[in-house]
Design brief:
By secondary structure, the chain is of the alpha/beta class. It is built from 20 helices and 14 strands.
Length: 436
């Protein structure tokens, strides 16, 4: 088997020599470039398995190298070499498409070796895990494509979306399709930890460090070592804990409660919340520097009302989940009633509705009555034939969606438009076609 090829780009010969001495014993063939021009020439001559590039070059910068490789050679992971403590450069690199970053001067060559080993484990194409998102709408296809790209990096990802949209599923997919898939995925609901126990839960503690600490305990960072730590509802962290979390992420070290020395950590941070973190930053309830650090890449999960064409697929999935060897029939009028319902609880609400309906239905047929939806959110169609119903269906769905959003926004059209992901002009035009 041929050796993996690595392109090293730095204008400091001492750094290049150190990188070569570290990588060649790992069985990696190294090509060294001291300029942007020389690096571009090498990229046209060889197919590299990895690239390490400095930020500042005599005739260009590393961000441009990352951009070129991301566009022309997307299967080649790139790591940025940054000046120690320059997190702004590291974040820019990861936003551009870098796999990871490492600071120089190198404090620990083991960290460098781990980075290189992880990058070389990346598959050339994403292998779809059994865990997946249900639905083939355009918005969900876009989400899947972004997951595939994010799985190929070590970038911190901030997952946004309303409650019930599947943020943890997305986090698990990013983990499962990346190089950390064989290591732990540790999920924690930040709002479920008592404040007085948070530091111990995150960083662990030593025996005798406080009353009740009868044994040493590993924290979440250590439990997720080599893998992924998913911070769900990260907005619920108190400010005092936000400071300590920020330091752990930036320094890649933790200090267990009662310990004298810091411990190096290797975890990828994914976070999620259904709050507007940017707004909480303005209100002083969430640290701006921590927000900047965890929000390197934002991945937004659409609400169910923005992908109603996926509801039939979701219905089929949940029926198969809740039944064994049973044929459950969902008539057209029942399915349409579901597509017109304003799912404030999103997919989780749909799942609960169907689980209840399957229990209540008779003769394996789910009727509108079995759904037990609020009457003011269902257009009555019992007297219409299927053909009569389908003709005005799209207009009726649009009308109900607009008025439900307006109701949710307390009659504020601007907020209603934002709720539906529409521009205010488009909302006003569509709204003008209907009368309540």
């Amino acid at each position: 088997m041929s050796k993996p090829l690595c392109l090293l780009i730095d204008d400091e010969q001492d750094i290049l020599d150190l990188l070569v001495m570290t990588l060649e014993p790992m069985g990696i063939a190294c090509f060294c470039a001291t300029s942007f021009t020389e690096a571009k020439k090498y990229l046209t001559l060889h197919k590299f398995n990895l690239c390490l590039t400095d930020m500042r070059l005599p005739d260009g910068n590393g961000l441009d190298i990352i951009d070129i490789i991301a566009k022309k050679y997307p299967t080649t992971p790139v790591a940025m070499i940054t000046a120690h403590g320059n997190m702004e450069t590291a974040i820019k690199a990861m936003k551009t498409g870098a796999f990871d970053f490492i600071s120089k001067p190198f404090k620990d060559l083991k960290e460098l070796r781990n980075l290189v080993s992880s990058a070389l484990k990346l598959p050339e194409t994403s292998a779809r895990d059994k865990l997946d998102l249900i639905g083939n709408s355009n918005v969900m296809q876009n989400v899947r494509n972004k997951i595939d790209k994010l799985a190929r990096t070590q970038t911190p990802v901030y997952i946004t979306g309303e409650s019930g949209t599947g943020k943890e599923i997305v986090a698990r997919m990013i983990h499962n399709n990346g190089v950390r898939t064989k290591k732990p995925f540790v999920a924690i609901n930040c709002g479920a930890i008592p404040q007085e126990l948070m530091e111990s839960e995150f960083f662990g503690h030593k025996k005798g460090s406080f009353t009740g600490a009868n044994t040493d305990k590993l924290g979440l960072f250590q439990a997720a070592s080599g893998g992924t730590l998913f911070l769900d509802e990260v907005a619920d962290l108190p400010l005092s804990m936000q400071v300590k979390l920020l330091r752990a992420i930036q320094e890649k070290t933790i200090r267990p409660v009662g310990a004298n020395e810091e411990i190096p950590i290797d975890v990828r941070i994914l976070s999620a919340t259904n709050y507007d973190l940017a707004e909480l930053v303005k209100l002083g309830r969430f640290r701006q520097d921590l927000f900047y650090r965890i929000n390197v890449i934002e991945l937004s999960i659409p609400p169910l009302r923005q992908r109603t064409e996926d509801i039939p697929d979701l219905v089929e999935y949940f029926i198969n989940k809740f039944t064994i060897n049973e044929e459950i029939y969902v008539p057209l009028e029942t399915m349409v009633a579901l597509t017109k319902h304003f799912f404030s609880g999103n997919v989780r609400e749909l799942e609960n509705i169907l689980e209840r309906a399957i229990t209540l239905c008779e003769n394996n047929k789910i009727t509108i009555a079995d759904l037990q939806l609020p009457k003011d959110k269902i257009v009555q169609t019992n007297n219409l034939t299927d053909d009569e119903f389908l003709d005005p269906l799209l207009h009726e769905i649009e009308r109900e969606t607009l008025f439900n959003a307006l109701n949710q926004a307390n009659n504020n059209k601007t907020k209603a438009a934002e709720l539906l992901g529409m521009k205010i002009g488009a909302f006003r035009y569509r709204f003008s076609k209907y009368k309540k």
